[in-house]
Amino acid sequence: MSAEIGLPQRADGRRLVVDIHAHVRRLILDGTLPPGSTVAQAELARTLGVSRTPLREAFRMLQEEGLLETAPNQRARVSDIDVAYVDQVYGARILLESLGIALTLPELDAERLSEMRAHLERMRTLAEAGDWRSWREAHHDFHAVHSARVGGQVRQIMSSLAEHCQRYITQNRVLEAQTLDVAHNEHTKLLEALESGDQSAAVESIARHLARTVLTTMAHTAPEYEPVGVRTALRMVLGTPPGQGDR
């Protein structure tokens, strides 16, 4: 276990379990612990300076989320990324993010739109600097604004789905200059639609942006797979017949 994997803060009781879960979860989602890697409970407990009891509970939570697979020998394995699951997750995101825009757009004022533009410019700067972790944070903040009206459990679900999507993209595709230019143009188009108050254009922009992101990656990592979930969600949002509007 790498020495860089440490718990950022100490706590007691239930809070300690939550902190361990959040910390190990982040390491899995950002690729520090890649799919297929093993995590020994005893070694991780020593690294974090905690007992096995809260660690076991945190592992159980990660297992329920599908991020860890546990074994009787007290070693856990980071789950592989299943392309069919990713297809379903992106399909769900297309539907939920479209709903988020429809609910939030009427309340997007000049201040919030200016905030989005600041996030967009920061993303460009961070991409040029190659600071991908900070870029992902700015990217999250950008998209959070146009779904701000969504609350409670639905917002938590949307956030979790986005994190699982990022794990797939991070593990399977290097952010290249050309890809980033395409993404920047898509983000700009989305922001312009929101600034003009055009709900239909904004919904189409987010749907096509999400679809393009995952379909481009799947074309390289699983070219034989037919992304039924993504294409179905696109047809539901865009109202296009099968085979159209989803390329």
UniProtKB/TrEMBL annotation:
Keywords: DNA-binding, Transcription, Transcription regulation. SMART domains: FCD, HTH_GNTR. It comes from the Bacteria. Residues 14-81 form the HTH gntR-type domain. The keyword Magnesium does not apply. The keyword Transcription regulation applies. Gene3D superfamilies: GntR ligand-binding domain-like (1.20.120.530), Winged helix-like DNA-binding domain superfamily/Winged helix DNA-binding domain (1.10.10.10). InterPro entries: GntR_C, TF_FadR/GntR_C, Tscrpt_reg_HTH_GntR, WH-like_DNA-bd_sf, WH_DNA-bd_sf. GO terms for molecular function: DNA binding; DNA-binding transcription factor activity. PANTHER family: GLUCONATE OPERON TRANSCRIPTIONAL REPRESSOR, TRANSCRIPTIONAL REGULATOR, GNTR FAMILY. This is GntR family transcriptional regulator.
